[in-house]
């Protein structure tokens, strides 16, 4: 009786066999190592990527190679970028002596600091903590690639595809959709990973726009940062704020000085101040509702320049509009109007 009970408990503790390869590696959640264990899901991702047999595929964070194997079967070559040396060794062992070994190139290193070679398509299950910087590294990669199919944390993915008026619509939404066509492909539950993460995931397809939009990237991003200081406040109230007016006025005076204006006197370090602090502030944050103190401009202080800024908003009927509901075309129109008035954001 006792023996039967022990046998029953042992069977209860056993896991069902899986054709998902794990090797002898321990996965670290702190490094964002969550390996896809569902082979049907892996097949679905590869299928939705639309890989051609002539494609060079970039994979980021291949882990033990479950997705890598399917990519090698579908394309011409896989370039896998992996930070963890243990995973690199496991990956090389897995494909050593197989027909795939000559078509797999493994680069050990941080993908954010690595010069990426040419590739046609990117397919990846990435560490979620690098989602934002990696997305923009890919968007600005040259030569441009056909598309990227990437697994993100669900909320981040929803921000990428959010439309004006959506709760998650933010600077990230506008910026990404400005440079690429973005579409949601799959929702992925946390139990499809080992070890399971704390959040659900989503697979997103990103297709860079060709040609690239003809807008200064720093100017565009600096403009959006201001508009999304508080996305639900009117643009009129945002552009009345003292720190916003101060930034714009410094940029305006610098531009006039560079054009040889006679009545402008700037200190030697002013231009560095303009180009530096505001543009570098919050570079690693995608929070669209930043909890930052915004000083209101004092009445009468710099009123001439303040009126110059607010007149642009009034002329375009933007004064009562909010960033949370403004379309990409609306942002472009407003930026163009500011620039025509000599007002710049970088």
UniProtKB/TrEMBL annotation:
Which molecular function GO terms apply here? RNA binding; rRNA (adenine-N6,N6-)-dimethyltransferase activity
Q: Which residues form the Ribosomal RNA adenine methylase transferase N-terminal domain?
A: 41-210
Tell me the InterPro entries matching this sequence. KsgA/Erm, rRNA_Ade_Mease_Trfase_CS, rRNA_Ade_methylase_Trfase_N, rRNA_adenine_dimethylase, SAM-dependent_MTases_sf
The answer to whether UniProt assigns keyword tRNA-binding to this entry is no
Q: Which UniProt keywords apply?
A: Methyltransferase, RNA-binding, rRNA processing, S-adenosyl-L-methionine, Transferase
Enzyme Commission code: 2.1.1.-
Provide GO CC annotations from the record: nucleolus
List positions binding S-adenosyl-L-methionine.
34, 36, 61, 82, 110, 125
SMART domains linked to this entry = rADc (SM00650)
Which lineage do the record's taxonomy fields give for this organism? Eukaryota, Viridiplantae, Streptophyta, Embryophyta, Tracheophyta
Which residue ranges does the record annotate as region Disordered? 1-24
Put simply, this protein is called rRNA adenine N(6)-methyltransferase
| Comp. bias (Basic residues) | 1-10
What the entry lists under Gene3D superfamilies is as follows: 1.10.8.480, Vaccinia Virus protein VP39
């Amino acid at each position: 009786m006792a023996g039967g009970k022990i046998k029953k408990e042992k069977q209860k503790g056993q896991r069902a066999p899986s054709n998902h390869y794990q090797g002898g590696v321990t996965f670290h959640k702190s490094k964002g190592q969550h390996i896809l264990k569902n082979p049907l899901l892996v097949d679905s991702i590869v299928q939705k990527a639309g890989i051609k047999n002539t494609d060079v595929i970039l994979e980021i964070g291949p882990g033990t190679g479950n997705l890598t194997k399917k990519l090698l079967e579908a394309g011409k070559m896989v370039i896998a970028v992996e930070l963890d040396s243990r995973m690199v060794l496991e990956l090389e062992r897995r494909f050593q002596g197989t027909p795939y070994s000559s078509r797999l190139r493994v680069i050990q290193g941080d993908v954010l600091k690595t010069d990426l070679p040419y590739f046609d398509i990117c397919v990846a299950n990435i560490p979620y903590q690098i989602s934002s910087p990696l997305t923009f590294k890919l968007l600005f990669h040259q030569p441009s690639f056909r598309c990227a199919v990437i697994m993100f944390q669900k909320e981040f993915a929803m921000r990428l595809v959010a439309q004006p008026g959506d709760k998650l619509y933010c600077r990230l939404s506008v910026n990404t959709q400005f440079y690429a066509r973005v579409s949601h492909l799959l929702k992925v539950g946390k139990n499809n990973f080992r070890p399971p993460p704390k959040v659900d995931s989503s697979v997103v397809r990103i297709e860079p726009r060709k040609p690239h939009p003809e807008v200064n990237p720093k100017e565009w991003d600096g403009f959006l940062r201001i508009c999304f200081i508080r996305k639900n406040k009117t643009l009129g109230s945002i552009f009345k704020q003292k720190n916003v007016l101060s930034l714009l006025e410094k940029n305006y005076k610098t531009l006039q000085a560079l054009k040889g204006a006679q009545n402008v006197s700037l200190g030697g370090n002013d231009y560095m101040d303009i180009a530096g602090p505001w543009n570098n502030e919050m570079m690693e944050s995608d929070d669209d509702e930043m909890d930052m103190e915004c000083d209101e401009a004092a009445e009468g202080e710099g009123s001439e320049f303040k009126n110059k800024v607010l007149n642009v908003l009034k002329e375009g009927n933007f004064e009562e509009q909010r960033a949370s509901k403004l379309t990409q075309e609306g942002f472009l129109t407003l930026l163009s109007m500011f620039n025509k008035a000599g007002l710049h954001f970088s």
